[in-house]
Amino acid sequence: MIERLRRAAADVLSRPALYWSIAVLFGLQRLFWTVVAPRRYDAEGMWEGAHAYLTNPSHMYDAAADYLARVHIIAPPGGIDAFVSPPPVALLAVTIAWLPRSAGAQAWTLIDAAALVLALGLLYRVLATRDRVARPAFWLAAAYFPPLFADVSAGQRGGVLLALAMVSVWFERGRPALAGALGGVAAAIKYFPAAMIIGPRPSHRIRYALVLFAVLVLVTAATFVPLGVGGTLFYYQHVLVPSLGSHNPDCAYDSVRTLFMRTIGGEPFAVPSATGYEIVSSPFHLAGLALFLSYASALAFGGGAAWAAWRSGWNAAYGMSLGFALGALIPNEVWPYQWLPLLPIALILLVRAVERRRKVTLALLCVFMLGFLRQPCELFFPNLWTIAGIGIFVLALWENQLFRPEPRASMGE
């Protein structure tokens, strides 16, 4: 009886239709909640930044600097006082700045969502899996991944960054200079995609890195020109540096740094309570040790990514995705949508584990993915997202041998 039940379960779980059906249901659910979202505060902030860049660039950061000086944290999203991103981000959104604010926010959300679909489609093509279960499993995991939904729902720019990163992966094999240029544009918008230089194959790496950094410098410098020398210095002194030191007790703020600072550093943070939220703190107050561990972990993640890329035989898609994933693990400030950079490496690991029938790897990956099921502010400890994200990344590092080149071309090799 038990054997028959086991066989029946195995038969059901091996049917692609099951995973396609669940993927479609997740996709429809995400689409519904995205459409009915009443406001897109981050998209409105993008509009504000782009509008200020067009109308008064030399003073576009005055409101943000004033808020940071008074409160010492970044302002809530939606207004010009929350816009602390560099000018390339404002230039990115210039196309929507000519629209009314609400229409511009909706237009930007459509742009970001379309970019996400493009990015996932390119990664799916790069993986080129022939496995009948791995194909729907890829789309199921993508449709489920809560940070993806958080990015689109808020009207963030993660989809554009992901698209640029995946196009860079796509061109790495045949046109490394173009791939580096696309990586440079992504790095100008948000600096962390520069870590993708970890991944290109050795014969392409120098060319890729040189072009990436050249484009990064050129795009950044060109977009700062309208601010003038005074406006540029003002941004770095009064906005960028203070924003990097922003220590927000918000439960949605769940970086690796806050994991250590909240557990052993004594940093206060918000948790749900019967009356809303209350501020709590750990009984331990070892702030120096917590800060050391946060910096040490960043070095360990970067070193681990380089080591795993080497151990994989320099599999470009794997190594570049590891570098891109560092954007979720190293920054001091990580909100739910900022865990999106983990998605490519999670999908790559999922597909290869399904192909190789690595049951333990799949089980662990599913457990870590389920760590994102509830939003951080619904959890008794918001940094459960951080633990889940670290788990996915470390598992991907550990399974580097899954990505070694095979006789047939795959994974961008």
How would you characterize the overall build of this protein?
It is a single chain. By secondary structure, this protein is mainly α. It has one domain. Helix content is 66%, strand content 2%. It has 19 helices and two strands. Strands 1-2 form a two-stranded antiparallel sheet. The longest helix is centred in the N-terminal third of the chain and has 27 residues, at 101-127. The chain is globular and about 70 Å long. The model has no long low-confidence stretch (mean pLDDT 90).
Helix content percent band? 55-70%
User: In oligomeric terms, what are we looking at?
Assistant: single chain
Q: Helical stretch count?
A: 19
Strand residue content:
under 5%
Radius of gyration from the alpha-carbon trace, in angstroms = 22 Å
Which structural class matches the secondary elements?
A: mainly alpha
CA distance, first residue to last residue: 46 Å
- Ranges where pLDDT stays below 50 over 5 or more residues in a row are none
